[in-house]
TrEMBL record:
Keyword match NADP: no
Low complexity composition bias: residue spans: 125-141
Family: Belongs to the short-chain dehydrogenases/reductases (SDR) family.
Organism domain of life: Bacteria
Region named Disordered: 125-150
Keyword terms of this UniProt record: Oxidoreductase
Keyword Protein biosynthesis: no
Protein name: SDR family NAD(P)-dependent oxidoreductase
Source organism of this protein record: Streptomyces caledonius
């Protein structure tokens, strides 16, 4: 993938994998919006820090307005509460779904117009397994016909 003229948005870029991905994108020549719930915690040189909480619709919309030149979205922000789905507290389960499912979906929807306009694709750290990821496959997955029985 050519990154020299890419304009990347990385969610959760203040630490962990997001920080590393943002640094790598800068190194490869991309302009990088390093987004974080608290942008003051972004310490990478060469990036544009931007406030973005994936669970806050207004924050997502505002970030998409600011980074309207984005061509590449890395849906990285996420949490792991280790809450058992059946026996665990529902609040924690909800938080995990809001952050890891509806969050990336909201971010993808907000940034879709700019990335579509430039024919680039949103991407996720858990690529293609994330519901928010609309990265096109290289081709349609062929459907197998069921084998006729014996
Ligand atoms: N590390 C692994 O082995 C692994 C494996 C598979 C998938 N992943 C996925 O890869 C991603 C990054 O993993 P990591 O290990 O780097 O995690 P991490 O160190 O815990 O970092 C998580 C990042 O997400 C941000 N974040 C959490 N909730 C957010 C919200 N509501 N809005 C915006 N940002 C939010 C955090 O920001 P704050 O600093 O504000 O909390 C932080 O920047 C996660 O989605 C994770 O599920 C990781």
């Amino acid at each position: 993938m050519e990154l020299k003229n890419a304009v990347a948005v990385v969610t959760g870029a203040n630490r962990g994998l997001g920080r590393h991905l943002a640094a790598q994108l800068v190194e490869r020549g991309a302009k990088v919006y390093a987004t974080a719930r608290r942008p003051e915690t972004v310490d990478l040189p060469g990036v544009v820090p931007l406030q973005l909480d994936v669970t806050d619709e207004e924050s997502v919309r505002a970030a998409a307005r600011t980074a309207s030149d984005a061509t590449l979205l890395v849906n990285n922000a996420g949490i792991l509460t280790d809450t058992p789905l059946v026996a665990g507290g529902l609040d924690a389960v909800r938080l995990e779904m809001e952050t890891n499912f509806f969050g990336p979906l909201a971010v993808t929807r907000a940034f879709a117009p700019s990335s579509r306009a430039t024919a680039a694709a949103p991407c996720s750290t858990s690529c293609r397994s994330c519901p928010g990821c609309t990265r096109p496959a290289s081709g349609p997955t062929p459907r197998r016909r069921p084998r006729p029985g014996p």
